[in-house]
């Protein structure tokens, strides 16, 4: 690994990248370990102590040496606080950031499950989307507060489990995926799906622009579940399991009718999967039978004259 040549022989400059394509240069000791690099991120850039470094799809052990990898190839997986993002540059500091800023006055953000706020309070409790023009003598730095948080449920069909993902209200697709990977490294390379469709947009797209809101569930597809047909079958099975749980309760006539209509909508979804073959085709046919049986159980008994 070739580092940038520093002025001091007692340290080296290591270039790391973020999930947004930005780069950060940090000063580390010669032959530094991953643990030492993360400690620098925590101390100088206010990253959370749970931050990890990733090479390809592998979360690196703290004892690995960063010079085993090409400079600029290691990815930061974790969250930085607002204090880090709003921190004014210190000329005498050995740490220097090389973020690529766009036209917006707002600095890049690293959001994830363990983000913490240290920003000033604001009367509205929200971050303004556009900075107001300021005079030339006023430093252009963000004084906006931490925005409201958003909690999502990440369903992982391949692992048959769900995780809780805590983000800020203006989080992006990249922030969601980074937070998920920090919870379970096996999610590296997963595909994000929402409402039965894969999210095929740039990773800097805000979640709210996709209709993803507080309390929503998303699917994190890995392995075989990267096939949208298999994921669709899985979602149908999820819905049937939920409806079956409701059917075990004492239901009013109105509630039975509502569940019957919901099952009809689920049945319509199976019509989109008629081109399946092999095992998936058989699985779909079984689901159709299950839906029909559940509908029959919800019908009121026939009254004979």
Quick structural overview:
The protein is of the alpha+beta class. It has six helices and eleven strands.
Q: Mind explaining what this structure looks like?
A:
This is BAG domain-containing protein. Residues 81-148 are annotated as: Disordered. Residues 81-109, 124-146 have a biased composition (Polar residues). The chain is of the alpha+beta class. The protein folds into three domains: 12-98, Ubiquitin-like (UB roll), CATH 3.10.20; 149-223, Phosphatidylinositol 3-kinase Catalytic Subunit, Chain A, domain 1 (Ubiquitin-like (UB roll)); 229-298, Up-down Bundle (Methane Monooxygenase Hydroxylase, Chain G, domain 1). Helices cover 29% and strands 17% of the residues. It contains six helices and eleven strands. It has helices spanning 34-45, 82-86, 173-183, 228-247, 253-271, 278-298, and strands spanning 12-17, 23-28, 52-55, 58-59, 75-77, 96-98, 149-156, 161-168, 191-194, 197-198, 217-221. The strands form three sheets. A five-stranded mixed beta sheet has the order 8-7-11-9-10, with helices on both faces. Strand 3 and strand 4 (58-59) form a beta hairpin. Helix 5 (253-271) runs antiparallel to helix 6 (278-298). The radius of gyration is 25 Å and the shape is elongated. The termini are far apart.
